């Protein structure tokens, strides 16, 4: 038993925690869910449940209705298997090989130097806990566990019609315990191409980088209305407002790896006229003041 599980079970007998602890112990970033999928299949079969993997790798687990509730509408509980693989800059962690290490911090469960994977590990553990319980009365029950939700929704898009029988679907990928949301955040992918003109570096220019730290970040759906700064937008505003006056020549701009995360760490590399370095420092101070990070 892990130290986390030992501590959490002293505080709560909820059957979700042993399942969540096991989920954390098996690497499952997006595109690398197979090991956890294999464990879930073995877990379901050991409990005598019908389990099937579809063509793209989604899992469907079925449990017959409780005696006397066979005529109820079927319910599908849904979660996704994969997690967002993000780590602190000073953390050594291979998400395809290393387990997540959860721990208790006051009233919260968090992870050591990485994302916890509660999105959607807690939802997944909740679904499995219902399947494994003999105390929950229910009609025909199905659990749908999709793959690759965080990096393309390929599991959801690849789900074929007719595999599920239930009439009611409850998605567990939400934020607040005991609350049900009607609707979703949605998302759009857009691709842009444009021609650029390359030029020689001006004489006397020096290499500089703009680094922004301390942004809060968040989920692009759940936190988009809270006014959290997007680092890419800040970089664009800096260039729009000061590139010409500082004689900036852009050498590299890059930011973001996840569609559903508010970016916190951009990369902007550029050449700047050496005589404008003082002005560059002043501009940086204005940015800090504006962001209230200083």
From TrEMBL:
Q: Which GO terms describe its cellular component?
A: cytosol
Please state what the protein is called: Cytosol non-specific dipeptidase
| Domain Peptidase M20 dimerisation residue range list | 213-262
Per its UniProt entry, which superkingdom is the organism in? Answer: Bacteria
Q: Which cofactor does it need?
A: Zn(2+); Co(2+)
Family matches, as PANTHER family: CYTOSOL NON-SPECIFIC DIPEPTIDASE
Which transformation does this protein catalyse, written as a reaction? Hydrolysis of dipeptides, preferentially hydrophobic dipeptides including prolyl amino acids
What Pfam families does its record include?
M20_dimer, Peptidase_M20
Its EC number(s): 3.4.13.18
Q: Which family does it belong to?
A: Belongs to the peptidase M20C family.
Q: What is the lineage of its organism?
A: Bacteria, Pseudomonadati, Pseudomonadota, Gammaproteobacteria, Vibrionales
Give the GO terms filed under biological process for this record: proteolysis
MF-aspect GO terms? metal ion binding; metallodipeptidase activity
* UniProt KW keywords: Cobalt, Dipeptidase, Hydrolase, Metal-binding, Metalloprotease, Protease, Zinc
């Amino acid at each position: 038993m892990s130290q986390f599980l030992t501590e959490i079970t002293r505080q709560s007998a909820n059957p979700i925690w042993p399942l969540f602890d096991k989920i954390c112990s098996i690497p499952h970033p997006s595109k690398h869910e197979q090991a956890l999928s294999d464990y879930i299949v073995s877990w379901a079969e050991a409990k005598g449940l019908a389990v099937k993997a579809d063509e793209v790798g989604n899992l469907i687990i079925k449990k017959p209705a409780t005696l006397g509730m066979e005529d109820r509408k079927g319910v599908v509980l849904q979660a996704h298997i994969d997690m967002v693989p993000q780590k602190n800059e000073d953390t050594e962690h291979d998400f395809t090989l290393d387990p997540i290490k959860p721990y208790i911090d006051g009233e919260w469960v968090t992870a050591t130097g990485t994302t916890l994977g509660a999105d959607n590990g807690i939802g997944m553990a909740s679904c499995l806990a219902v399947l494994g319980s003999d105390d929950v009365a229910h009609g025909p029950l199905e659990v749908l566990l999709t793959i690759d939700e965080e990096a393309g929704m390929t599991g959801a898009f690849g789900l074929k019609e007719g595999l599920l029988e239930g009439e009611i679907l409850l998605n567990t990928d939400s934020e607040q315990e005991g609350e049900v949301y009607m609707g979703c955040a949605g998302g759009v992918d857009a691709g842009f191409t444009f021609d650029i003109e390359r030029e020689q570096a001006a004489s006397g220019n020096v290499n500089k980088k703009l680094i922004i730290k301390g942004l809060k970040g968040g989920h692009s759906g759940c936190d988009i209305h809270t006014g959290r700064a997007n680092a890419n937008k800040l970089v664009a505003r800096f260039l729009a407002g000061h590139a010409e006056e500082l004689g900036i020549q852009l050498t590299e701009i890059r930011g973001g790896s996840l569609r559903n995360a508010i970016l916190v760490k951009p990369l902007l590399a550029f050449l700047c006229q050496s005589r404008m370095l003082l002005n560059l420092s002043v501009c940086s101070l204005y940015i800090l003041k504006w962001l209230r990070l200083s």
